[in-house]
Amino acid sequence: MQRLLPIAIRGFVSKETYEAVTELCMFFRVLCSKTLHVDDLHKMKCNVVQTLCKLEKIFPPCFFDSMEHLVIHLADEALLGGPVQYRWMYQYERKLGLIKRRIRNKSQVEGCIMREHLVNEVATYCSLYFDPTIETRHNREPRNFAPQHHSFLSGGSQLSVFNVPSRRLYQKGGTRRRMSVKDLKKAHTYVLLNCAEVYPYIDEFDKVAPQLYPGKPELLLRDYHFAEWFENRVTNGLPDGSTRHLKVLATEPSIYAQSHNGYFVNGYKFHTQHYGKGLVTSNCGVCVRGETYNAEESDYYGLLDEILELQYDSNMPQTVVLFKCTWFDNKNGVLVHKNNMVDVKHKS
Known about the structure:
By secondary structure, the protein is α+β, with helices and mostly antiparallel strands. The chain has helices at residues 4-9, 15-31, 38-58, 66-81, 90-101, 109-127, 181-193, 199-212, 221-236, 247-250, 273-276, and strands at residues 166-168, 175-178, 256-260, 262-265, 268-271, 285-288, 300-312, 318-327, 334-336, 342-344. The strands form three sheets. Strands 2, 3, 6, 7 and 8 form a five-stranded antiparallel β-sheet that branches. It has a three-stranded antiparallel β-sheet with strand order 1-4-5. Strands 9-10 form a two-stranded antiparallel ribbon. The protein is extended and about 80 Å long. It starts with a helix and ends with a strand.
């Protein structure tokens, strides 16, 4: 109701009907969020009255009863009681539905429920004494679980780019491929510009770059010259050895990268376009939030073309995972409606 209904009815109903129903869907979408903001709830409290008035202009009087009127009080209820997942009855309804499905003998309903419930309790109780290596409902990994990597370099330091929670879709899958010089340089520069430990050197480069590379566009200096400057800066280093932990990043990664069809990252599963083409569900869409929100920048939407594992330091391999994507035009190809629904023009 919250996400699919506005998309399903769009174009099939009048503009007034679509806007009213969509506003109601957005109301429940915000109300059922894991985190609630008081300012948003106060705005919703006023806006939902207008939404119901719009619905009264469209639907006949017999449509409205106490349930439709109840929506007006839900914002106040959230202000007093907090997020709905701790108060609403859906979890208990699911539990009752599970109990009903355990009934085998309709003439002895209570006996069936008690017997199945006792078996479940005994099995759960016994599983608490199993060895931790045996998977049970208590230690089962989440569906899109990705482990936290702990790859410490020499000297005990740890770089953030090597420590992103991720794992392959198929552990033994992947194809080894040779990267072009252009793609390798672009990927290496992207890794450097997005490593937290390198940020101080980026500021240093911005100050000296106009003198080192005169006559070249300032917007392109990072993309074309930062990797080269950073390698010289770290290789020469300082007498105190403060740049020693960055030497693994200073040189380019191996020209041979591992390509994969899917990856789990931060609790989400991603597929490449080619791999997900014949699947029922598609996980090839990506979204990257803009750094600043103004008239010139917004969110970026794209499709995942390839997943690459770059390997740094052949002596003690360190891996960085990159997504190669096709991006949509975020100025002319993306439209954000007033109810925060996003339209993407796939041909742009």
